[in-house]
Amino acid sequence: MGSTQFGKFDNFCRDSTLPVCNLFTQVPQGCQLVGITLKGGRHLGNLGSILVCGLAIVTSLFLLWRSERKKAAVGRREMQLFLLGYIIIEICEIFTVGGFPLDRKVLIGFTGVHLGMIVATIWILLLNAVVGFQLVDDGTPMSLGLLLGSGAVLLIGTGYIALDTGFSWTGHFDGSLTPPNYNPGLYVLYQLAPLVFLAIFFVLEGVLVLRILGEKRPMIYLLSAGLLFAIGQIFQYVVSVHICNGTGGKINGALFETLFTLGSVVMLWIFWSSITEDDWPMATAGSGTVYD
What we know:
- The chain is mainly alpha-helical and 292 residues long.
- It has helices at residues 10-15, 47-69, 76-96, 104-131, 141-167, 184-213, 217-246, 253-275, and strands at 36-37, 43-44, 282-283, 290-291.
- The strands form two sheets. It has a two-stranded antiparallel ribbon with strand order 1-2. Strands 3-4 form a two-stranded antiparallel sheet.
């Protein structure tokens, strides 16, 4: 049988700057980010990503404020939860991808939270699509509790595996600390599950817009969000090593991945805002009434 890369992070860590790679004690050496030189011979490896993360945090805070003003919008609180999750991700990314000269234990701690929040936040985004169908009244304790409770399960589960890997609490994941860095649990939760969640999200939102709202314009925003996210992933996984080699390790694709992901989040917010406009009513499930 041929070999498979399922569960292995060695090639990803060699060619990309992924937070998960902070958990491993040995990874294949590719192009190393040198960034800018600090005192004591230390380096701040990824200043560009740090600045873009700061921009993402400020932008998300603005979107939170704008969401708060949309008092009658369906899924307002749920969208705000997604934005809060994204803000936490970007705060963690400053330290996990930014190349700060941190103590290894601190870096592993940030990485565990980062990975857990990625999975939980994308899950919350998926549930935002479900909320749009009004199967559960939005903004209610039941709706918010469902998002927070299920998101917390994914955060704790993913975070535990990440921390156990990095700190070797049980030794169960010690085999992944060295190449080929085989960790199927993290691979499924961090690499595959978010893609599945996103695919379902886009399908549900497409059905909501085209079949229920009967509109086409919001699909421009939704497809733009998907395209921007895909471009960001291409920069991260495909182009990154070439940028790093071409700049002598000054920058790599992580900067552009963060930037395009920010653009994707902004377009998702614009999409959500567009389908909650007052002039686009939707029939409630199980009834013949129409509401804004």
